[in-house]
Design a protein that fits this description.
41% helix, binds S-adenosylmethionine, globular, Rossmann fold, 7 helices, seven-stranded mixed beta sheet, 7 strands, alpha/beta
Amino acid sequence: MQQLDKILQFARQNYIPVMLDDTRQLLFDLVSKAQPSKILEIGTAIGYSGIIMLTASKGATLNTIEMDEDSVKLAKSNFAQAGLLDKVNFFVGDAREIVHQLTGNYDFIFLDGPKGQYLDFLPYLLEVLNVGGTLVCDNVLYKGLVENQPENGHKHVTIARNLKQFLHQLQTNPTLQTQLYHTGDGVSVSIKLS
Ligand SMILES: C[S@@+](CC[C@H](N)C(=O)[O-])C[C@H]1O[C@@H](n2cnc3c(N)ncnc32)[C@H](O)[C@@H]1O
């Protein structure tokens, strides 16, 4: 899609973090297969991943959380250009507060927000994920630092430890079936079994 390439180019030129190319393909394939009706996203940025998901599941609506207001403005404009704005509800604010107030039943959740908070978010996300639903989390290998934990004093040590614990919880939770992809910065895909 030409518009997605333009958004990607804009993001790269303006140092806005959006997903890597192979993760884009993986996300598109997962949503195409799942065909969710209700999607939740944490970390809208400028709408790149949101457009990918709504393009892959034509009948879906997206609730998306983002704290940066400038990004939200750009995201609205990008969704509008894609003809998808009426399918999106924006929750503008800190996901650390918003996740506690989440209600509803989601078929697909894409977690791509603050990496240090994934572990805290998990119980709230599992609460609103339907049985049979999919939870996809980006950057779970965090620059290789999750599998090769850094020494004390390293600037990313806390995030790397939190993400390692997060992955362990996903992989040992008996209500989840989790697959880890070494695609991009690491992507986990969990299906809620019960
Ligand atoms: C990696 S970017 C999301 C990229 C987007 N999903 C994509 O691929 O197009 C992470 C986003 O999370 C947002 N973010 C970080 N911490 C947040 C928080 N506590 N609450 C809400 N949004 C947050 C950032 O502003 C940033 O836009």
